[in-house]
Automatic annotation (TrEMBL):
<feature type="domain" description="Serine aminopeptidase S33">
    <location>
        <begin position="173"/>
        <end position="392"/>
    </location>
</feature>
<dbReference type="InterPro" id="IPR053145">
    <property type="entry name" value="AB_hydrolase_Est10"/>
</dbReference>
<protein>
    <recommendedName>
        <fullName>Serine aminopeptidase S33 domain-containing protein</fullName>
    </recommendedName>
</protein>
<dbReference type="GO" id="GO:0052689">
    <property type="term" value="F:carboxylic ester hydrolase activity"/>
</dbReference>
<dbReference type="InterPro" id="IPR029058">
    <property type="entry name" value="AB_hydrolase_fold"/>
</dbReference>
<dbReference type="InterPro" id="IPR022742">
    <property type="entry name" value="Hydrolase_4"/>
</dbReference>
<dbReference type="Pfam" id="PF12146">
    <property type="entry name" value="Hydrolase_4"/>
</dbReference>
<dbReference type="InterPro" id="IPR024981">
    <property type="entry name" value="DUF3887"/>
</dbReference>
<feature type="domain" description="DUF3887">
    <location>
        <begin position="13"/>
        <end position="102"/>
    </location>
</feature>
<dbReference type="Pfam" id="PF13026">
    <property type="entry name" value="DUF3887"/>
</dbReference>
Amino acid sequence: MNPLSLEDLKVLAQNFVDQFLQADFAAASSRFDDQMKVVFPEVKFQEFWQRFIGPAGNLLRLTVVRTAEMESYRVVFIRCQFERAALDVQIIFNIQGQISGLNLMPAETKYHAPDYVDTSVFHEVDVTVGEGQWALPGTLTLPLDQGPFPGVVLVQGSGPSDRDETIGPNRIFRDLAWGLASQGIAVLRYEKRTFKHAQMFTPELIAQMTVKEEVTDDALLAIQLMCQTPQIDPKQVFLLGHSLGATLAPCIAKQNSKLAGLIIMAGITRPLEDIILDQFTYLNSLAGPMTDEQKTELEALKAKIALVKDPGLSNAVPAKELPLEISADYWLDLRGYSPTETVKKLNIPVLILQGGRDYQVLPEKDFKGWKTALNSRSNAQLKLFPNLNHLFIVGDGKSTPQEYGIEGHMDEAVIYTIAQWIKENMIQLR
């Protein structure tokens, strides 16, 4: 039998990784040679997947990065770019095209600072937000000039997230921190509780978790830390939230009267369940007309959303019957919260920023909601960036999840807008 070509092996490798990522362990392991089947049985294969792939988040992009030959074996390297990690899968094929070896390793994803960053004018120090079992490591980025400086506390979006709000190769909170520090503004960013302490979240704790435990408690502690930092002017501390962090920014500000202002980046103004339905509908439309399977999935999602909206919803309803398997406690806690009604009752300056290509937070619905709520406010500024996506990275055409797997940076115009707005709204010391 003639050996398979490298092109054939690339196809086999990608098919194998597809099966692997879809948790089809029986199909994937059927490609193993006899020795691999002994060393790596299906049960062990599943444990391997749960340990390394599960925490990485959704797949954004999959590419063959290189091939190699060693003696009678040939190797294909597949780069898998997930939301929270980049992993290289090394697949070793024997002469018959069977898999004789498998390795998984973190891919090298070096951060490349954007042109608007000047690393010679700031430095960073490690800090801790909170204390006890939920203490969170953070980074305070400080200009080198003599303070006190205005400060910004960054609050991430939904899901487990590191302090850089890493999504694929993109680290937009580092872009923000370094970009603003280059213009004389201090920035505090920190790991989310669900990221740093993921192993501590038992099924019972997850079932009881609300945005209080996920976001607001730690954001309030971060603001407190910023206000108590000697190099920071406590009268000039601003809160910047992105996505879920932006949605909850008014709620956080309501609980802390010391904030000098709010920066809301891609914040929703509608119920979260409506946002989820819009997102799934949009994603299903990208490849053309929906398939019967997609239509069935969408109807199932609508049924779950109806449960969330049902006045009779209680925490006795299992999470698996609700959207994204988020617990009833979480949905019930959000039910009484309106970002727009809350922000209208705040007297501090507000900056609302929105990407025109954002499919997760819609300009024609959510940004419009902020405009309606703040239309008569002289201390509110709203700005739409037509070519930016949910990460405020420039792009063309319809936005897709796959573009989050391509390295980019928060647009310079966004950094400039935020910096100028902060300087214009700084409270002068008396």
